[in-house]
Amino acid sequence: MAEALVSNLLAKLAFISFTQMEQEVRLIVGVDKEVKNLTLHLEALQAVLLNAEERQIKEPDVRSWLNNLKDVSFDITDVLDEWNTEILKHRIEKQEKHGEESVVARRKVRFFISCPSCPCNCFGQVGSVSVRHDIAKKIKEMNERLTLISSIRQNYRFERTIRGNEQLEHPKTSSFVDISRIIGREDEKNNLVSKLLQSQSSQEGRSHPVVLIVGMGGMGKTALAQLIYNNENIKTHFDKRIWVCVSDPFEEIKIAKAIIEALNIYDSRVNSNELQTLLQCVSECIEHKRFLLVLDDVWNLNNTRWEQLKEALQNGASGSRILVTTRKEIVSITMQVTTDHVIYLNKLSDEDCLLLFNQTAFLDDKETDFKLFADIGKEIAKKCHGLPLAAKALGSLMRYKKTRTEWQNVLDSKIWNTEEVEQVFQSLLLSFYDLNPAVKTCLLYCATFQKDYEFDKNILIELWMSQEYLSLNQDKETIIGQNYFNSLVMRSFFQDFKKDNDGNITKCKMHNIVHDFVQFFTENECFVMEADNANEINIALANKVRHLTLMFSPDGSFPISIYHFKRLSTLIASFLKITTIRSNLFFELRCLRTLDLSHNDIKELPQQIGELKLLRHLDLSYNFDLEELPNTVGDLCNLQTLRINNCWKLEKLPDTMRKLINLKHLHIEESNKVKLPKDIGKLTSLQTLHGFTVQHFNFDHYKIFTLEDLEKLDQLQGSLRISDLEGDADMAEKAQLVKKKHLLHLSLEFGVADSKHQELLLNALQPHTNLEVLMIQGYRGVVHPNWMMSLHNLRSLTLKGNENCEFLPPLGKLPSLEVLRISWLESVKKLGVEFLGIEELLPNRQTSSITIGNAVAFPKLKQLELHSLDSLEEWEGVTAGWSEEEDDSELSIMPSLSSLQIGYCNKLKKLPDLVWKTPLQKLSIKSCSILTGTGRQWVEMSHIPNIEINNVFVQKGGVQLVLATDEDDEHDDESELCRTDSLYWISTMPEDISTRQVSEERLTGKVKWFNDSKGFGFITPDDEDREDLFVHFSAIKSDGYRTIMDGQAVEFQIGVGPRGSTQAINVTGPNGAAMQGQRKERVGRFGWTRRR
Predict the structure, then answer these.
(1) What is the CB-side half-sphere exposure of residue 358 using CA atoms within 13 A?
(2) Residues of the chain with CATH 3.80.10.10
(3) Which residues belong to any copy of the CSD domain (predicted)?
(4) Which of 40, 119, 1070, 1080 has the fewest Cβ atoms nearer than 10 Å?
C-alpha cells in the first residue's frame, strides 16, 4: 500500500514541472522549495519500498516504519486535495459569475505551485489569506515528518529496487474462467452425499443430523460444500436448500434473518431484531419441509446460541440435514456431531496439486508451453503443500510468466522460507508482489468490506475511482478500472462470479483466506465493525482508520464514537436503518471521499453535507422515503458519482447540481418521480445517465432536463435508458444520439403518442453505429426506421410491445446480431423471407428454381426468442433453397443458432424447415397450443439435443424421454399428449439402473404424494424406521397410461447409485401387479404419443 501511495503522490507532484507554462497558483514565498524537497524525499523512498514491503513480514520494525510512511502519505494527499478543491471552487465561482455557456471541468485540475518570480498570482483570488497560509503551513509540516521518516530508513539498509515501466496485460475475455472444478475430492463428495441422503435412524431422535466438514484455511471446504449444495440428487431430495455464510462471530439474529431471506418468503418479522421473533418465523417457514441448511465458515460457537437456533430448526420434516464447514474441530463438540458425521479434508496429493496447478496455469492448453515449463511446474506445485487455494493462486500467477527464467525465479523465491506466515499466504504473497502498485492498492481496498461480501464490479470500480487509485487521467479511469479488476480475477483473488447474458462478470466474492491476507496488509487502516461496538474503540486507533464499514446498528443511528474517525476517507453505513443524521457529523468527517448511506430509512439530508468538499462518491440508493436533496449538494465540487437508485419519493434534484463539473456517473434507476435540472446538460464530463425519464414541461420555475438537453453529453458511455418517450421529432433530433460513439447499450421506452408521431420520433433518435445492444419498447409505429440496418455492430436487439406493426424489417441483414427477442407484437401474422433479408434474392417466388449466390441470413444469430405474438400464424420456410443438390452452396440461414424459444404463440401452426438445418442445441416451446397439440414435427426436431415443452424437458443431452408420434396412424385425427413409460422428470434424472446396487429385499409401503405433472413423488415404507423414499415414474410398472394415486399400496426395492443416492425402484402393486389408477386424457406437458 505504501508503494502505491507514494507512486500516486509523485504522479500528482509531477505536474509541478508545468508551472512555468501554466502558472495557476501561488502560495507564499519559499513553499516551492518545500514542495521540491517533498518530491525528492518521496523519490528516494520509492526506490526502497518494494524491498521494505517484502521485509515487513519478518521484521515488525519495518512494518511500523511503513505504517508511519502510509500515515504521512495519506495526510499529504489530504493537503493536496484540499488545495486542489480551493482552485476548483474558484474556477466554478468564476464560471457562475460570467454565466458561461458550458460548465466544463478541465481534464485534470493540476497541483501547481509557482515560484516567487511568477507574474501570475491566481491563488491570491482563491480563498482567504488564512486558507492560503493554512495550506502552506501543512505542506511544511508534512515535509518535516517525511524528512524524519526518510532519515530513519537508513537504519534498515534497504535494497534499492526500481520497477520497470510495466504494461498491464489485458487478458482476453474468453479466458475468464471460474476455476472451480474440484480435484481430488471424489471420495469426500460421495461420502457427503451419502450422509445427507441416508435415512434418519431412530437413535437420532428429533434433532436433525449435523454433518461437519473440517479443514484448515484454503483447503476447499466451501468449494466442496457448494458442489454438494448444487448436486442434482441433493436438489431433488430436499424441499428447501438454504445457504448461510456465518463467519466470526456466530450471530444467531443475523443467521435467522439469512435463513428467512434464503427461503424467499416475505414476512415482516424479518425486519425485527428480537431473536425469539425471528426464530419463531424460522420455525414456521420450515414446518413440514425437508431442508438442507449449510452453515459456511463457522468459527466461535456458543453452546447456548446454537441450542436456540437448533430448537427452531426442529420443525422441519424428517430427513432434514445441517451441513457445516469450519476450521475448528471443537465446533463438533458444541454441535454434538457424531464422529461418523465429521469429514476431514486432508491436503491434496502432489499429483492432484499439480493437476490443479496445471489446470489454472495453462488455460489455453498450449502443449508447447506445458512441455517447456513442466519440470519447473512440478517443483512449484510441491511448494503448495497440498493446499488447493495455494495451487490455484500459484497457477494464476504463472499464467503470465512466459520464460523459463521467470518460472525459475518463482521457484527460487525467498518467500518459501518465510515461516512467519501461513503456508497459503506464501503463494498469495508471490501473486501479490507480482502486481503493480496501483492494482495492489485496489485489492487492499477490498478489506474495507466484511467477509463474504458480494462486490458489484461497476460499483467497485467507481469506489476505486473515488480514492484516485486508477489514474490521474480521468478520461480513461473506467477502462483502467476494468483492466485492474480483470487482472485480479485472472490471478484468482476473486471467485464466485455472477455473469450477464454476454458472459461478462458482474459480481464476485473474495475467498476468506484472501480476505485475511488483505487485512494483514491494511491493519488499522481498513476496519469493519458493528455499530454497537464502535464506542469501544480508542481515539488513537480511530485516528488511524481510513476506510470504515459499520454493521448492525440496533437503534438506527450512528455511534457516538464516529466523531473520532476524523481522517476517514471511506464510510460505508448501509443497511443500518438510519433515519436521521446529525448536522454536525459532516463537520467532523471532512476528509471523506466515499460515503455510502444506501439501504437506510433517511428522509432528509442535513444542509451540512456540503462541508464534504473532498467527496467523490455518494450513494443514497434505496432510501425509499428520501424526498429531496439539499441545495448544498452543489458544493460537492469533487463529486464524480451520485447514486440515487430506488428513491421512490425523491421528486427533483437541486438546480445547484450545475456546479458539479466533475460529475461522471449519475444513477437514477427506479427513482421514477425524479426530475433533473436543465443545466445537467452542461455537465459535459457526464459518462453515465442511467434511468433517464423524459420530461415534457417545467414545474414552478424549475427548468427541467429534457430530451434535447442530451445534445452536449457526448461522453455518455455504457448504457442509456430513456423512458416515457414523447415530444416532437425536432427535440429528439437535437439529442444527437448519433454523435454518442461511446454509448453501447440503448433502451428506448415510448409513452402514449400516436403511431405516426412515434415513427418520426424514433427516426430522429438514430444512435451511433457503435451501438451493441438496442431495446425498443412500447413503440406503436407501423414501420421501423431505416437506420436499424446501419447498426453493423449490433449484437442484441429486443422489440417489445407494438400493436400496429405487421411486418418486421429485414433483420437477417444485421451482420453481428447474436440475440434477437421479439415479443408482444400483436399484428404480426407472418415471418417471411423479408424478415430474413433475402427477399430480393428470390425474384420468382412461384418457381422452385432459385439463383441466390453465397447469401447468409442472420450470420451470427445464436439465440432467437418469439414471445406472445398473438396473431402469428405462419413462419415461412425456404424449402427450395434446401434441395439436396443446392444444400451445400446456395443459402445459409442462421448458421450459428443454438437456442430457439417460442412462447404463447397460439396461432402458429408449424415451425419452418429452415429451423431443422440450424445447429440448434435447445428448443423451448411454451403455451403454443397448435404446436404442442399435434407433435407432428417430432421427426424433424428429434435431432435437437435439448427439447423443452411447457417447462418440462422431453429430451435432454440427446436422451429421448418420450415416445415419438406415430405418423402412420391417419385414422385418428385427434392427437393427445399422454404419459409414457419412458418418461421421467429431467431435473432428477435417475442414475443408470445397470449401475445401481439393488437390495434383494422387497419392501411394502404406500404412495404418499405423487406429482403427476412432474413425474416423481415419494413412497412411505410400512417400516416406521425408514424415511420416505424418492421415486421416479420410470421406476413404476403401470397399466397403460395411468395416473398414480396417493395412498396406493406398493411393493418396491431400494436402489443405491454410485453417487450414494437412495431411491425406490421396481415399484409395483401388491404381489407384483401393475399399478392401477385413472387414465389421464390430456396431460399436455410432456410429449407426443398416439392412443390406440
Answers:
(1) 21
(2) 524-705
(3) 1002-1069
(4) 119
Highest mean pLDDT among 58-72, 265-279, 843-857: 58-72
Which helix H or strand E contains 152, and what residues bound it? helix 129-152
Tell me the one-letter amino acid at 639.
Answer: L
**What is the rounded distance in angstroms from the CA atom of residue 420 to the CA atom of residue 59?**
10
- DSSP code of 989? P
Phi, psi of 597, rounded to the nearest 5 degrees: -115, 25
DSSP class per residue in 377-438 = HHHHHHTTTT-HHHHHHHHHHHTT--SHHHHHHHHT-GGGG--SS-HHHHHHHHHHHTS-HH
Q: Are 681 and 734 in contact (CB under 8 A)?
A: no
Whether the Cβ atoms of residue 158 and residue 51 lie closer than 8 Å to each other: yes
Angle of helix 423-433 relative to helix 512-521, nearest 10 degrees?
70
Q: And the C-alpha cell for 570?
A: 471511506
Q: Where in the sequence of the chain do the CATH 2.40.50.140 domains occur?
A: 986-1079
For residues 23 and 123, give the distance between their C-alpha atoms in angstroms, rounded to a whole number.
Answer: 10
Q: 1062, 198 in Cβ contact below 8 A?
A: yes
Closest CA relative to residue 819, chosen from 879, 772, 871? 772
> For the whole prediction, is pTM greater than 0.85?
no
Q: What is the CATH number of domain 186-339?
A: 3.40.50.300
pLDDT per residue as tens digits for the range 963-1002: 333 333 333 333 333 333 333 323 333 344 333 466 667 8
Q: Tell me how far apart the alpha carbons of residues 858 and 842 are, in angstroms, rounded to a whole number.
A: 17
Per the structure block, which three cell numbers stand in for 370?
Answer: 506445458
CB 438: neighbour CB atoms within 10 A?
Answer: 22
The C-alpha cell at 1017 is 413423488
d(CA 486, CA 488): 5
- Nearest in space to 279 (alpha carbons), one of 304, 301, 259: 259
- pLDDT score for 956: 63
192 residue type, one letter? L
How many C-beta neighbours within 10 Å does residue 1075 have? 20
250 bridge partner residues:
none
CATH class entry, domain 524-705: alpha beta
Contact yes or no for 72/142 (Cβ under 8 A)? yes
| Helix or strand (DSSP H, E) at 2 | helix 2-13
Hey, which CATH number is domain 986-1079, 3.40.50.1370, 2.40.50.140, 3.10.20.30, 3.40.50.12230? Answer: 2.40.50.140
Rounded Cα distance between 8 and 10, Å, is 5
CATH 3.40.50.300 in the chain, residues?
186-339
Separate counts of helices (H) and strands (E) for the chain = 28, 39
**Dihedral sign from CA coordinates of 532, 535, 541, 544:** positive
**How far is the CA of 401 from the CAs of 369, 372, 398, 406, 410, in angstroms?**
10, 12, 5, 6, 9
What is the rounded distance in angstroms from the CA atom of residue 480 to the CA atom of residue 716? 17
CA distance 159 to 146: 19
Residue 790 buriedness (CB in 10 A; 0-12 / 13-18 / 19+): middle
- Per the structure block, which three cell numbers stand in for 273? 431484531
Distance (Å, whole) CA 297 – CA 295 = 7
Q: Which residues pair with 643 in a beta bridge?
A: 619, 667
Cell of 948: 423443452
**pLDDT reported for residue 415:** 67
Report in angstroms the alpha-carbon separations of 652 from 54, 246, 648, 674, 751: 52, 41, 11, 5, 21
List for the chain the helix, strand, coil content (%; round to 5).
35, 20, 45
Q: Which pLDDT tens digit goes with each residue over 159-190?
A: 887 665 454 444 433 334 344 467 888 888 88
CB-based contacts of 690: which residues, under 8 Å, 6+ apart? 645, 666, 667, 668, 669, 719, 720, 721
Judge contact between 494 and 510, C-beta under 8 A: yes
